Amino acid sequence: DYPIFRFADILLTKAECILRGAQATNGDTPMSLFNQVRRCSSAPELTANPTMDELLDERSREFYFEGLRRTDLIRFNQFGGTQTTYNWSYKGGNINGVTFDKTRNLFPLPASEIQANRSLIQIDGYNETEE
Fold this sequence. Notes:
mainly alpha; 5 helices; 37% helix
């Protein structure tokens, strides 16, 4: 096994880092990095730096069905917790979508792992028996 990273992921991650306050290199701006990705799909280019919401939306389009959405939503504080503003049908097990405890941003430790290593402590919010 070996990891594979798409160039679009690298560009959008660098744009996100700059938007979050990292030092830009090589004259890159969030807008220029964002537009490199959009050019590949012939999408209209931005004329100003993207917002964090625009960046999250672009990641959802670019990495559709690539298994990154959940971690992106967690990183952008849009998955669980009472502070989230993003909602979808059946979020939290409700047809209209409801917020849920931020504890659910993490998966519980499997009971078999806790039984194999008694030094492990289950994540707050989960029962010792949940898997």
